Amino acid sequence: MSFSKGINASAATLTRLRTGESRCPYSGMCVTCLDGCVGLCEIGKSAIRGKEVLYPQPFGKTTSASQKEYPVDYSHFNIMGTAVGANGIEPDPDKAIFPAVNLETSVGAGGGLKLDLPIVVAAMGSTNVAANNWEHLAAGSAVTGVGIAIGENVCAMDPEVEIKNGRVVNSPNLSRRVKDFQNWYRGKGFIAVQANVEDTRLGVQEYAIEKLNVEAVELKWGQGAKNIGGEVKLNTLERALQLKNRGYIVLPDPEDAKVQAAFKAGAFSEFERHSRIGMVEYESFMVRVEELRKAGARYVFLKTGAYRPADLARAVKYASDARLDLLTVDGAGGGTGMSPWRMMNEWGIPTVYIQALLVKYLDKLSAKGAYVPPVAIAGGFTLEDHMFKGLAIGSPYVKAIGMARSALASAMVGKTVGEAIREGKAPSEYKKYGDTLEKIFIAAGDLKEMLGAESFARLPVGAIGVYAYFERLAQGLRQFMCGARKFAMQYITRDDVVSLTREAAEISGISYVMDADAREVEEILG
Prior knowledge:
The protein is built from 20 helices and 17 strands. By secondary structure, the protein is α/β, with parallel strands linked by helices.
């Protein structure tokens, strides 16, 4: 069985094979490598552009995720419906209808953070593709009533940031990002500020708490896309020197006179800025959580990536002992486009597998009577069936689904189409619906009524796309839940899904479809 697609060629790296689908199955090379080829594949382009080909292209303008086909994924599970009863509503056909399904959920140690929909937009930091669409994504999340986190490196990447004695005292960029959510906040959802090693050294979260009225902060151990720190490209020597001075790893070394000469001569056009990897340790973790609470944080989260099982156990244990308000676990294969492409495909524990381990570990905590933190599961979730499966397999611990690329995609498309409409250039794909925002965007009318005409006119247009996308997910999720006769989030259970293969059942602990309901079947037929 081959698990990877495009081993030596992918649209993500703008590479292809000269021989098309005729490839060597284990190396990914063309079956015949021709002397005289200019280098179309990753090997060939690497011979010309070297380290540049590690990353998805064009760098900073795309989002990318793994093409690897894992042995088990969420398509190996199906959602169960029933013809009997109703949970959370009177079992009356006139009342038990899918619009009546309640999708509200909450996170926080005391359930203090209410969400209208079980969605958390996973953190997006200093990358161009996130920065260029942030106001649309944040506003859309706020008006929908879901959670969203600001990712790493935003302050230090801010050209106008003020740093005194090694601490951030003013960051217009971070301030703007926070306000992009706060300006549209309607009482549900949250904005959190994440921190990596460099952010922690700079006091970014303390600044956000004290100066920007941020109540929720998130400690970061990693993500599902990579096991190293974040990276961006820098196209000026001045910027490279500035960020090295702010504590980042910058390659090649911009302070080296030979490197400066090579850059000025055009030998290369971009520097790479990399963040450091963290060093997790129990005592220092607990100290940091306490520091944040003393600084005024009402809610403290942890996001961990697709590390080995022992690290997941650490995340679960530390989150329990610290009584954290949300633990987000991110499965392998995702990313917003800055991660090394091969790493996205070949590193980490895929989402189904890491969720299965997560449930096992949380069961151990629960059996001992320990505090179990609210959990969000992330890693490739995009549509309503994914959401239901993630909630069911993770029941009763998973309270929300983490999303990143799909939410960003809805913001980008909403922005592109909305701005075109405002310029009188409605895309031909949508002209059949009309030529105004209200006619083309199906959710525009609802938002206009909700916000008022004046506020709606100020709303970043991509936010309409985010809102419409989330509303679609909500409608689809309600339909699945209604069919399963579960009319509120707390009634979803693990037996609302079945495994379609023995392997999926073995990994997840979810009943194999042919074994499901076995005892009840015997009672019915007995």
